[in-house]
Amino acid sequence: MIAAGLPSRGQPVPSAAPAPLLEFRNVRVVYDKAIEAVRDVSLSVPERGVVALLGSNGAGKSTLLKAMSGLLYTEEGVLEGGSIRFRGAEIQALAPDELVRSGIVQVPEGRRVFAALTVDENLAMGGFTKSGSSARAKLERVFELFPRLAERRGQVAGYMSGGEQQMLAIGRALMSEPVVLALDEPSLGLAPLVIDRIYGVIARLRDEFGLTVLLVEQNAQRALDVADHGYILENGRVVLDGPADRLAGNEDVREFYLGVSREGEKSLRDVKHYKRRKRWLS
Amino acid sequence: MRFFLELALSGLAVGAVYGLVAMGFAVIYKATGLVNFAQGELTMIIAYIAWTIQTNLTGNVAVVTVGALGAALLLGLAIERVVMRPMLGEPVFATVMVTIALAVILRSSINFIWDAYPHGLDLGVGRSVVRAGAVGIRTGQIAVVATLLAMLAGFTLFFRYSRFGIAMRAVAADDRTALLMGVSTGRVHAAAWAASAVISGIAGIFFAVSYDLSPTMFQLGLKSFPATILGGLDAVIGSGLGGVIIGVAENLAGGYLGSGTKEVAGFVLIIVILMVRPFGLFGQRDIERV
Fold first, then answer.
1. Residue B179 domain-assigned?
2. Which of A59, A95, B127, B192 is disulfide-compatible with B31, CB 3.0–4.6 A?
3. At B237, phi and psi to the nearest 5?
4. d(CA A85, CA A70)
5. Per-residue pLDDT tens over the stretch B220-240
């Protein structure tokens, strides 16, 4: 037996802070029994917090969200080690619908609205796990957040603009009354003004709706503006984490993710070259 | 004129049978993205079960229908659970091969369980003739057309307004995202197989009452599949209408151009229509996924 107060390596150190609402502990995900997408990743998302998960393409961000939503099996992925806990209970073995019912919902990358369905039908699908009687109040809340959707209720979702589709995707997720809302690259491919509006809503979701938000982004600037805490993922591992404002001030983060260099503007090519040479924390 | 009407009306009736079977194809395709090549065999088995109930238990039309359709429901669920679910996520080609194997097994089971002779399914109804002016039509034929219309209306409402109906469309469009909404795709697949077997069963019973029961009845599937393609593989309503179009076209060709053309008329029509609309008359997507 391990002596109390002497946690073994890899085990998170117990602290005075309250237990996080959602927690990834030493998660390892392998695709096709061969490709290790995520290695020994631990994250914790406190209740009513906004946690940003940053990193470039292929860093393993979406894999973590798929693990959280129980979707790994659709891509031959397996959580080979570690655990995911929600309110202290292990959830990695739950089916996707059970996870949605327990309040863990994600807005997938690329929005993935049901193109052939109308706005109303998309929203109805979001509330699939909930009874129909509470639908009206929830619809009103969604339309209050996104007045644009109210104007387009009968429209087929596939013909809407990217920004409107992102609003619909978030509204659809809200219909299931989530506790934890994960957003996978909500700013992807959107105009700056639209991104402003989406991020305004994300802040309101926490402040007014009391949601806990896990924000996966490549757009580090935006994400760190709204987040309390951030994790930076590279090649499937967490290479850096800390309070959002401290991350935003970190020299390396500024250089690689915010595009601000030590001596004024630098060309992107230099940044990329530098990144190839340097490895973080290892 | 009278000749035309009689041809058209009986074409309508047989087309309604094709339409029902075609809807069975489309329901499964819509929910699972698969073509079930055992649809005709399923239709035949249910008709044989109805005949078994009629000869061994009672000829009461309600009992036979409810019994046979209940068996269809169970058979649909069983096939999904035992045969199709383990194939989930496997390549479409392999899964379609499984349905072809299933077709052969079901087809041969007629000879194992029953026999190879034709039989009449006599439920005491459906064979009397109603005269409307100069043309006569059997009540069974009227009933099958009415049933098809009711099914079309029912499915339209179901897909448009019911939560489960919208969920089926969502699963068809993007099953992974549907999972994220908490839709259990397994349950949707099971429901689709059950519904499809019941619709086919209805078609099988009508066919057996109007015509006869024989081990070659599975060919209904071969005739109805083109109807599904014509209407659009993913269009349940369109498939029902496609059946009617093929039934009428077949009968008119047989009457006016000679009986030899009856078998090919539907297929000629399909070639022409698919050249203009490759995804079928009412289909929404390209049918690449087949």
1. yes
2. B192
3. -65, -45
4. 13
5. 998 899 899 888 888 889 999
Give the per-residue SS3 of A172-186.
HHHCCCCCEEEEECC
Looking up residue B198, the CATH number of its domain turns out to be 1.10.3470
CATH 3.40.50.300 holds for A22-277: yes
Spell out which chain A residues touch chain B, with contact meaning CB-CB distance below 8 angstroms: 69-71, 73-74, 95-97, 99-101, 105-106, 108, 112, 114-117, 121, 124-126, 128-129, 132, 172, 176
pLDDT band at A57; cut points 50, 70, 90: confident
Question: Which amino acid is residue A157, in one-letter code?
Answer: A
Domains: count for chain B? 1
Taking the CA atoms of chain B, what radius of gyration do you get in angstroms? 19
Mean pLDDT computed over A42-69: 91
- The alpha carbon dihedral of A212, A215, A221, A224 has a sign of positive
Domain enclosing residue B58, as ranges: 2-114+134-276
pLDDT at B278: 81
Q: How far is B174 from chain A (nearest CA, A)?
A: 7
Please give the backbone phi and psi of residue A48, each rounded to the nearest 5 degrees, phi first. Answer: 60, 20
| Residues sharing a CB contact under 8 Å with residue A148, sequence separation 6 or more, in sequence order | A164, A167
A89 is written with which tokens? 């209970």
Phi and psi dihedrals of A212, rounded to 5? Answer: -100, 130
Query: Can you say whether residue A254 is alpha, beta or left, with left for phi > 0 and alpha for psi between -120 and 50 degrees?
Result: alpha
In a domain, B129, yes or no: no
